[in-house]
Amino acid sequence: PVSVVVEHQAVRLAGGEHRCAGRVELWREGQQWGTVCDDEWDLRDADVVCAQLGCGYALSVTGQDGAFPQGKDPIYLDELKCTGKEENLWQCPASDESHDCGHKEDAGVVCSELKAVRLTGGVDRCSGKVEIHRNGSWGTVCDTCWGKEEASMVCSMLGCGEPVHFLAFIPPFTHNDSTLWYYQCFPNHTDLWQCKEYANKTTLCVDSKAAGLICSESHGRYLPVTTEATTTVLSRRPGPVTTASVSNDGFPFSMSLELLGCISLSFLLLMALVTNALLCCHYRRRDGWSQTATYIQ
């Protein structure tokens, strides 16, 4: 994690997938990093941390059993009562009594400048429309800047392998009612966040559609479905991923060759079993008729 020092009072967010989200840690001069207890921890306290880190403002706070792993260092502050205008947490009123907190109560925050990427509109997280998180909402990427290099970066960032399909989706994905992102990447870039990004540059995104992507770890071939923008914050690396609100416009996906093959084999096996059962019934009846005819004679 990246730390920021204000008047020798360093702060950082640890345990997250981006420097603007994680467990709050403070540096005490001459000692070591330590955590903050979640007692009374709220958005005003968290705003101080986000502002100090240059990460905007607090979108949400976490505490006991939160999304970020527990710390191991000393717990420095408890029952903070910041106004949100302080330069660092040490300036905020806090309990001067011994705390009774454990690390399961470590305070965390997700700031508005969290950068995250996800794929929505498919039946798994490795396929769908490319969406970018910023300032509490999910925007889309203009396909006028979308190529194999950018697709490879996103598949890698999501732990989804390599790009299989990234252009010419029919029907095309549509943009969300949010920010339009345009990325200018170069061969030495390995991460989408290293690329130069432009927000809502209409001249760059004129007549564009929303970029889509199918990675090799996806289990099917997907067609676009309509997705609604949401303020849910996601991790941009492997791990649990929340989903956007989705409304299906028709059948959401067509099957991969592997899945189609499995279904075909299963159907043939079923037909073989049915045929075998019918033949058994037929021969049993014929044998029964033969024995009856013999008895009459």
From TrEMBL:
InterPro entries on file: SRCR, SRCR-like_dom_sf
GO cellular component terms attached to this protein's record: membrane
Family matches, as SMART domains: SR
Ranges where the SRCR domain occurs: 11-112, 117-216
SUPFAM superfamilies per the UniProt record, alphabetical: SRCR-like
Keyword S-adenosyl-L-methionine on entry: no
Compartments where located: Secreted
Keyword annotations from UniProtKB, A to Z: Disulfide bond, Glycoprotein, Membrane, Repeat, Secreted, Signal, Transmembrane, Transmembrane helix
Predominant localisation class: secreted
Disulphide-bridged cysteine pairs: C37-C101, C50-C111, C82-C92, C185-C195
Transmembrane segments annotated in the record for this chain: 257-279
Superkingdom as given in the UniProt entry: Eukaryota
Classification via PANTHER family: DELETED IN MALIGNANT BRAIN TUMORS 1 PROTEIN (PTHR19331:SF22), SCAVENGER RECEPTOR DOMAIN-CONTAINING (PTHR19331)
Protein name stated in the entry: SRCR domain-containing protein
Species of the source: Oncorhynchus mykiss (Rainbow trout)
